[in-house]
Amino acid sequence: MQDIVVIGGGPAGLSLLAALKSSPKTRHLSCTLIEGSSLQSVRDFLVEPPEEYTNRVVSLTPKSVEFMQQKVGNWDFIKQDRVRFYDNIVAYDSQDNDARIEFDATQIGAGVLAVMCENINIQSSLIGRLNELGMDDSTTILDNTKVIDITSPIHHDLDQHDLNEIDVNSGKSDLDWPIVKLSTGESIQARLLVGCDGYNSPVRKFAGIESRGWQYNTFGVVATIKMQYEDHRSIGWQRFLSTGPLAILPLSEDNATIVWSSTPWLSELLLKVNPDIFPHLINAGMTLEEVDLKYIYSMLDKDPNDFKVLDEIQWRLSKIDIKSLEENYPLPVVELIQNSRARFPLKLSHADTYVAPRVALVGDAAHTIHPLAGQGLNMGQSDVGFLVDALEKGIERGLDIGSTMVLDSYVANAWPGNHMMLGVCDKLHKVFTTDFGPVVLLRGLGIKSLNMAESVKDLMIKAISGR
Amino acid sequence: MFARSALGRSDQLVTALNSQKRQFVLTAATTALGSLLFSEDNRLASQMEKGLLHNKNAENSASIPNTANKFFSRPEAEYPGHVPLYTFEKMLMFLGSSVGAYTHPERNEFIVALGESTAITPVLRRLQHQMLSDPVGRQILRERPRMTSTSLDLEHLRELPDNTIGKTYVKWLDKEGVSPDTRVEVKYIDNEELAYIYQRYRECHDFYHAITGLPIIIEGEISVKVFEYMNIGIPMSGLGALFAPLRLKKSQKERLYNIYYPWAFKSGLNSKPLINVYWENILEEDIDEFRKTMGIEQPPDLRNLRKEYFKKLKEAKKIV
Ligand SMILES: Cc1cc2nc3c(=O)[nH]c(=O)nc-3n(C[C@H](O)[C@H](O)[C@H](O)COP(=O)(O)OP(=O)(O)OC[C@H]3O[C@@H](n4cnc5c(N)ncnc54)[C@H](O)[C@@H]3O)c2cc1C
Known about the structure:
The structure holds two protein chains of two kinds. By secondary structure, chain A is of the alpha+beta class.
């Protein structure tokens, strides 16, 4: 029996655990976190991080960083030499390189726009923080342990209950607390079950919470790369191609990470292209016209090792004014870190609600978003903040933390903001991945007037940086 | 803003002409403006932002006192021989040359200027797009071949077998009494690659005559223009097809409408883009094979049709 069982040891789950253990009001609760895969690499990272960057990197908003510093206390355990602050985003359009918008945080005196940080750096800092707080009987992390079943003692009526692979007959109890059955054969009963278990959330299915949304039929291809040299400009670059946005985000020194949202066909191509051609392909994607890109893709589709494309890329690059190339575009990419390419299907989803009696959803279990604005993990951080707030208040008032009376204020605070963010990113994605003439025209005009209307931009910078 | 003033001015220019002519100028101006406005929307948005689409009159620059000079200095040339023009100058050139070409079709300078002023950026960019999508098109853009009587070695072509492209071409040149050097240099198009593309289009024009076998008399020229327009989309050709027939005799019109327009539409649409043909490299290839791979049907021989027609006329007169 536990007060809280957290399923999922991703950034959301570990943050929630560390936040609960950091708050004087919730510290006493007995908590168990269950993670299906091994967290060994996360623990190793704390002691001895690998030399090269890992490929899962996120952009953290200053608000999330503040939360980690003040509420969770894990920021001190972040490997600071592996994060990169940046203060400027330059976004531009492949159908018109002059349609560009710049978000310069220094202009509004904000200093930092966002921080690039590896997922594993965040996870390991949370482990570091939990170690500091002391792992006693009230804090348990079970990794390499899968949740194979969740049952509710009160759901005996098969017709009323959304089954989703769950065996309702196994649990027998007088309490209405859900029972979590583990791959180790153990079962744990929880006053409150929190699903930090990602997009396919078993907890959400157990609770019968509907999640709406759609697949974008798009993949995010990620990779770690090296630039020609360290760019002191600290700019996050994003170019909207008709196949989806391509972003180069700075890491420390000459390192950088990319997210290339692409059609299924293109994403496959990007993964199989010769690793020595790949950097040039990114350079092409950031600068050349769509017609050239299409031609180059078709060459590589026939032969992913066709080094003749380098010649094509060089030739078309030579058509761009050198000065403009230096000022208006990222530095050339020169190297792909071995085996750092991977792709993830992109989708939009939002759960109708985040709570049910004795159940709460946090992070990707509650919502998934297009990565073009780098908000997914940040939304999870704000979820954690609101959920801990709600639990603190419930405890203050002497309420049962598993009751919807306590949990409802979490939904009320977290849901609307997330919903707006999901909507905005969805529209952005749709507007920018079209080559339908009138929309292209409008977006060209729109992006430019946006760039000129300083007040609107200031607002957007504030929104992006979570202020 | 400018659109209205351009049309206004065109009105003044054509008041002296008859209504048919006015119709043409207005249609043409609207077509040109239309393609200017809708074909490449986004680039246009940039131009708009940079103020390139606005009529840079005194009023405008007066409101921005410090930059007034910047607006009046001419941009730098992008390639040797380039004469950078403002958009409104191009529009004037278009209006002037279209009126000129109509009233004086024999004067080449009007035709040439009309060509360049209608080959506005969006159209050339469409051609560029076609070329960049094709391996041979890209090769041409890279190597930038130029066609002159020396680069083509006409003497050598005369010695090729009859069924080769080279021999067909030189035979056509000799028959029509023209030379590859009669083509004028491009000078008003702003981007150097686009300027080359237009130059290339001009230089290849005679090959279109040669492979179709159409002579440069007015009906032949019109047919080739329609064919070209369908195949490549250079508006000059489309305009030519629109207004030129107005000046023809009835029998000429009939031949055009019944035989050559249908042929030009069909062949022009169905054949592969001719701009991507590297003529210099296929001079020794078989012309029928080439027509087959390109999907071009040969039209009936225009000169023969005319001969037959005149023969019939004579016979008719004899009988009477
Ligand atoms: C290409 C790409 C780029 C992105 N870029 C950004 C960015 O720049 N900024 C940003 O903020 N976000 C970004 N995101 C989003 C961000 O990565 C996610 O929002 C975040 O990782 C979600 O964390 P989470 O802990 O909620 O879920 P997850 O990381 O998915 O964690 C869920 C965990 O639950 C475990 N689990 C699931 N089922 C079970 C079970 N039955 N038993 C036991 N354990 C289970 C899983 O093993 C997993 O560890 C990006 C996403 C993608 C795909």
